[in-house]
Amino acid sequence: MLDRTSTLFSHVKAGEGDYVSGGLRDFFLYRDLGIAQATHGKVIAHLVKANMPPEEGTGWHRHEADFQIVIMLKGWARFMYEDKETLVEAGDCVHQRPGISHYLFDYSPDMEYLEIVSPADFKSIDVEPVCEIPKPTPWV
Predict the structure, then answer these.
(1) Cupin type-2 domain location, by residue (predicted)?
(2) Radius of gyration of the chain (CA)
């Protein structure tokens, strides 16, 4: 049975909330969607958008999380998921299985995605490189 008492109703309108720096990556901006507060930390949902050109990318890492999806809303991004290059374009949804080693190394200037992760206070752990990373596409 669904427990309706441990979470709160939440509605964040399109114009509410600013994109801010200070998130997981300095070269992205983040807009909180109020889900972490509504779920008492069970889930986080935020919009992420490009802020600076991809110079070094995220580096190889994995997340200590039970669940993570990325839904690309605008533009594109190129990831390495273990040794497989993956182009994620607007409209695509990626489920990152728990513990998968990955590296976001390239993205378009208009890239914007929705990320949903559980728990809200998930950890990002640096890992040893899995393979060589292709060069990012220079922004013009």
Answers:
(1) 51-104
(2) 15
Environment class of 29 (CB within 10 Å of its CB; exposed 0-12, middle 13-18, buried 19+): buried
Answer positive or negative: Cα dihedral of 134, 26, 18, 13: positive
The domain that contains 41 carries what CATH number? Answer: 2.60.120.10
Distance CA 59, CA 129 (A): 8
Print the domain residue range for 62.
Answer: 28-126
Q: Find out whether 105 and 54 touch, Cβ atoms under 8 Å.
A: yes
- For residue 121 the two structure tokens come to 């206070």
Give a yes or no: residue 3 inside a domain.
no
User: What's the pLDDT at 2?
Assistant: 59
pLDDT digits (tens, 9 = 90+) for 55-114: 888 999 999 999 999 999 999 999 999 999 999 999 999 999 999 999 999 999 999 999
Domain assignment present for residue 8? The answer is no
**15 assigned to some structural domain:** no
How many domains, the chain? 1
